[in-house]
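hey so u asked for the seq, here:
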Amino acid sequence: MSASYQFAVILPHTLLFGGVRRFFELGEIFIRHGHQMTIFTPEGKYPDWFQFSGKLASLSTLPQYELDCLFTTEDKFLPQLTEAKARLKVFYHVGPRASLKEVMQHKDIVIFSNSTNMYLHNKKKYGLETIKALGGVHIPAEPKKISLPQEPFHIMCYGRLSRKGKGTGIVVKAAEQLYREGRNVKLLLFDAPLDEKGRKQIAAFKPKVPFEFFIDNPVEENETMFKKADVFVAVEKKGGWSNTAAEALAAGIPLVASNTGTNDFLIDGETGLKVWRYSFFVKRAIKKLMDDITLQQRLAKNGREKMKSLSWESLAAFIMNFAKERLG
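ran it, structure tokens below
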């Protein structure tokens, strides 16, 4: 019988961020395979967006635990990671905002990168060869059926209005330009606002194009939401792994995206259309798809096949095997 491991992670909170969701998804798979998963945060509160069958605990209780494998994604938790009683310690680099300068000084800490984008970033900035722990994404049982008519043509993007780097404004501008040109388009956006300020920004959002904003859409209903789109556009400025682009592609939605966070699945002209982060290029790519249903179908099919190797299950299997090799 395979060994049962005590997995754990230190997170800043349990709000719906990609780097946070990663460990709830992985944790559920670890548990299904007979392991245990504990998530430590300063407050130790369960999330309201995910039914987690593992344990949530206050970070202050970490010294009481003896663990097999402990992760964190935040360099501010490096003291807790180094002092913890864990046989294997992993810094999982999920975004460029977290610095590896101090992490690198601790030779007992293994460093994972969540994408090729982050792997290349770390190699260039730190001269460091990190371990690729790529993915993940939920793969729906069936892809979206792409067929005519597409009236209106639905353009979807992540609607985090409070963070300019997410590129929402670029997509909005492209959609507005298409609408002014007489194209029958509708903009679809989604977000789970982090605070009242974010909700007010959504309430005040009035683009010059027909639109619909999905607010606090349940994670388990993401597949249904994504399948409302005819194209998904992702043009983030910085990032490791584009969760939203990955989910859309896995659902069978044609993808238009920049290189940020998409290196592992975006192959221009094969699994999607690669663009620069300007509305002109986004608009041009969307028009190309609108005028070619066969292209939509081909890109969506190829993209979904590509995502199957980057599922949550594949990523969890990699991590469990890694732990087994290191811990026995």
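Residues 6-136+311-327 form a domain with the Rossmann fold fold (CATH 3.40.50.2000). The two ends are 12 Å apart (CA to CA).
lmk if thats what u needed
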